Amino acid sequence: MNAANPRAVIGGNNPPDPIDVALEPYGPILEEVANWLDGATVENDGQLKATDDLLKELKAARKAVDAARDECTKPLHEIWKAEVARWKPTQDDLDRQVKCLVAAQAPYKAKLAAKKEAARREAERAAAEKAEEARRAHQAANAASIEEQRRADELLAQAELAQRDAARAAKDTVKGMRTVQVYAINSHRDALHWIAKNDRDAITAFVEEYVRRNFKQRPIDGVTVETKKEAF
């Protein structure tokens, strides 16, 4: 190559940016559009026709950019999908093994949890009993009797020990178990009335979303459907 015969490639030795390539045919259009975007609005048929033509070209430019983007990203996306797919069977099988092992543990864990819960209730019962016994002893003890005061204090110490035992029992839970709350709808009608009374916003949101999805398919009481033209 010499000065009389330069390389006729946009960007010299570097490939052109695909975005620039996609937009290159629309350069004059974009410049003209910029002239229109000064805050003024269309005022006559001639301006409307001109802006309609520009809109058509702008939408074509957007499609060209989308196509160029897809052309550039599709190979990368395919590589990404293939790599994700390669990992997924292993991930799924590990998840499956976790579920199976959890299921294998579940019956024994349930028995163990029930046993610990029974122990917790018993410890709380014993602590409450000791606390009441100590309270009564202190109330009944003769303030002038050292033996009665010693006995009352001993019962109080036993009550405190029992309370610590109850606290430890409450913390002694089965790992891998959790407390969950479940529900069953006994009456959809009653539930609906309760929601309407106590959470009107939820009813409003449901109605608006239902109407949005269904107003074209069927008439809905309380809803007016209007057909109108709008720019796009």
TrEMBL record:
Q: Which domain of life is it from?
A: Bacteria
User: Where along the chain is composition biased (Basic and acidic residues)?
Assistant: 121-136
Renumbered residue ranges of the record's region Disordered: 121-148
Full protein name: Uncharacterized protein
Query: Could you tell me which species this protein originates from?
Result: Sphingomonas baiyangensis
